[in-house]
Amino acid sequence: MDYQKIKNFRNDRSPFAHRMGIVVEQVGPGYARTVKTITEEDLNPLGRAHGAVLFAVADTACGSAAASYGFQSVTLNASYNFLRGAAVGDVITAEAREVKHGATISVYDALLTDQSGKPVGSATMTFYTLDKPLDL
Predict the structure, then answer these.
(1) How confident is the model at residue 110 (pLDDT cuts 50, 70, 90)?
(2) Of 16, 26, 110, 111, which residue has the fewest beta carbons closer than 10 angstroms?
(3) pTM of the predicted model, to two decimals?
(4) 3-state secondary structure 25-56
(5) How confident is the model at residue 53, as a pLDDT?
(6) Following DSSP, what letter does each residue of the chain receive, concatenated?
């Protein structure tokens, strides 16, 4: 499997992630790492990173880990735990690791941390793998 091509595919073909500033840094077997720097545009009315931003970082990481097998997949279910807020300038990294890989159903856990390694959030996401290869 060419993980560099999958990483490039995920970065080049996701207008939403691009607009949000979410970058896939690494893809490996059942694994992916994404990163995003929190900006003013990411804030909620309380001046902290909006929860949807953090969720999107986790979903991008888990979706990229699911894509590591070279097939399209869609999120079936997701659970996110907000552990700590994030402020402007914080660099959020999400590492997604496979819990269970199946022919059609796979599960991934993600841990989100800030630039000092403090946990910001965690997620468990379930994906359905389509019978469609990625167009690499």
Answers:
(1) very high
(2) 16
(3) 0.96
(4) EEEECCEEEEEEECCHHHECCCCCECHHHHHH
(5) 98
(6) --HHHHHHHHHHS-HHHHHHT-EEEEEETTEEEEEEE--GGGB-TTSSB-HHHHHHHHHHHHHHHHHTTSEEEEEEEEEEEE-S---TT-EEEEEEEEEE--SSEEEEEEEEE-TTS-EEEEEEEEEEEEEEE---
